[in-house]
């Protein structure tokens, strides 16, 4: 399984960005895919997760109502639409995958596959 994240950049407070994670190397129908982020000196934390077949969506409390995770089956791509960004959202964002949904979807240790990070910087 290969994951390729893209879409990061510099944005002002209140702005929006959409991250993409292109997935390949498997049939993803039952996979769980997630976005994590890690700021300097901090632990990696989950942002959002979904089950590829669409039956499960989950969000960290810090991003509920601002971020939306979605997927495009034809493109095998998972998106993270980020709105109302603030400086606390500044991090390197990673996409991750595992072969099935887990109730422990927020734990980085549960995921077997990781993409490279993409930097998101929100200026005040």
Task: Set down the secondary structure blueprint.
Elements: E1 2-6, E2 9-12, E3 17-24, E4 32-38, E5 45-51, E6 57-59, E7 67-72, E8 77-82, E9 91-98, E10 113-114, E11 118-123
Parallel strand pairs: 2-11
Antiparallel strand pairs: 1-3, 3-8, 4-5, 4-9, 5-6, 7-8, 9-10, 9-11
Structural class: mainly beta
**Number of helical segments?**
0
Largest sheet: 7 strands, mixed
Mean pLDDT: 96
Tell me the span between the first and last alpha carbons.
37 Å
Overall geometric form: globular
Detail the poorly predicted runs: none
How many β-strand stretches? 11
Radius of gyration: 13 Å
Percentage of β-strand residues? over 45%
Which range best describes the helical content: under 10%, 10-25%, 25-40%, 40-55%, 55-70% or over 70%? under 10%
Order of helices and strands: EEEEEEEEEEE
Explain the overall architecture.
This protein has 124 residues and is mainly β. It is built from no helices and 11 strands. Strands 2, 4, 5, 6, 9, 10 and 11 form a 7-stranded mixed sheet that branches. A 4-stranded antiparallel sheet has the order 1-3-8-7, with no helix packed on it.
In short:
The protein is mainly β. It is 0% helix and 50% strand.
Key terms for this structure?
124 residues, 50% strand, four-stranded antiparallel sheet, mainly beta
């Amino acid at each position: 399984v290969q994951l390729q994240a893209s879409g990061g950049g510099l944005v002002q407070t209140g702005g929006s960005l959409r991250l993409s994670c292109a997935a390949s190397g498997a049939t993803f129908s039952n996979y769980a895919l997630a976005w994590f982020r890690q700021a300097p000196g901090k632990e990696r934390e989950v942002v959002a997760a979904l089950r590829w077949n669409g039956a499960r969506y989950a969000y960290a409390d810090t991003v509920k109502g601002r971020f939306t995770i979605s997927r495009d089956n034809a493109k095998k791509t998972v998106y993270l639409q980020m709105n109302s960004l603030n400086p606390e959202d500044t991090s390197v964002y990673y996409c991750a995958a595992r072969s099935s949904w887990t109730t422990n979807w927020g734990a980085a240790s549960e995921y077997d596959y990781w993409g490279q990070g993409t930097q998101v910087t929100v200026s005040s």
